[in-house]
Hints:
By secondary structure, the chain is α/β, with parallel strands linked by helices. The chain is built from twelve helices and 15 strands. It has an eight-stranded mixed barrel with strand order 1-2-3-4-5-6-7-8. It has a seven-stranded mixed beta sheet with strand order 9-15-14-13-10-11-12, sandwiched between helices. β7 (194-197), α9 and β8 (216-217) form a beta-alpha-beta unit.
Amino acid sequence: MVQLQAAVQDVFDRSHIAAAYQPIVDMAYGEVVAVEALARWPRLSISPETAFSVAREAGRVDELDNACQRAALEGLRGSNLPPGFCVFVNVEPVGSVDALTERTTGPKLMAEITERALLRDPARLLRSVARMRDRGCGIALDDVGAVPDSLAMLPLLAPDVIKLDISLVQGWPDADQARILTAVAAYSEESGATILAEGIESDAHYGQALALGATLGQGWYFSKPGPLGDYPPLRSSISWATRRPTPPGTPFDLLDPRRLRIASKGTLLSMSHHIEAQGLSLETPPIVVGAFQTASRFTPATARRYRQLARRCPLVVALGASMGAEPVEGVRGGRLGPRDELCGQWIVLVLGAHYRGALIAKDLGDSGPDLERRFLFALTHDHQIVLDAAQMLLDNASVA
Length: 400
């Protein structure tokens, strides 16, 4: 273990880090349209998996990840990659993205985020993704199919490229994986995202990748990782779809004023309970987010419902002024500032692979009995409105 720790110290030394590049092929034309940069330590007897495992234990993942990103970008210097070519660079979900966001020239970059840790810190992840998109980076989601629970993050992350996990390409999908493939196909059809299959090592894997809807392929069947090659002009034109930015404002600002109605809290409770209940009934567990104005309105009855939701759903969030970090077991709390506009809104939304619904209401400021307080509201199942509202809630709250 002492030798391992000493070796890992050397791993952080930039002089030991080198980048290898594995081609990504357009399977319709058989040409290389992108490469994935992979960190290697040719002078050290240590694997990338071991390096990152020990770095994580030492709390130094950001440092190592950033060093690997810089090695990948330095390896591109002096290259003459053709127009439209793309370079995939691995990024830890909650790591530093300084190297990618500082870069201003060169080929298009695709930040590749593993699906295995999407739910560790979703708010920080979404902020990092926004930074990278602002600087022109695309987003690729890796290992899709390895962790079914993370499927709920697919619409929020809005990847431009979905990389199917090797288990899907090299074996027969089980029931959970088939559910994921259905959701991936629906997302790709809706968004225009590209599907990439990794781990292709044989003719059988190649055929399986095509059957799963992949148009891009990666694996030893095409090429092992190695030095950056010289690539001719592309015959094919890959459309690296990019999601539009979330509009400014609050969820209530997204609503069409012509659709707004007025109702008491007592009337709206049944609607909010119905939306919450989707988290228990949908085949693919969704994300559930509630904004309750203040922590005092996250009542014991509400806490019981959200505890039940958290036992099934991969991410359940409750926001409000003075809200604790975990208002009830399994629920992530988001503390709003007392002057935050969201403190004047009551929102319950469910965001899933095949269902999106939300109650979005604005407090009209009535005094008197709680259940008689009136709200200006809309009940919506508009996919874009619910998606933008979820993004706003997670972006504007410190969800841990």
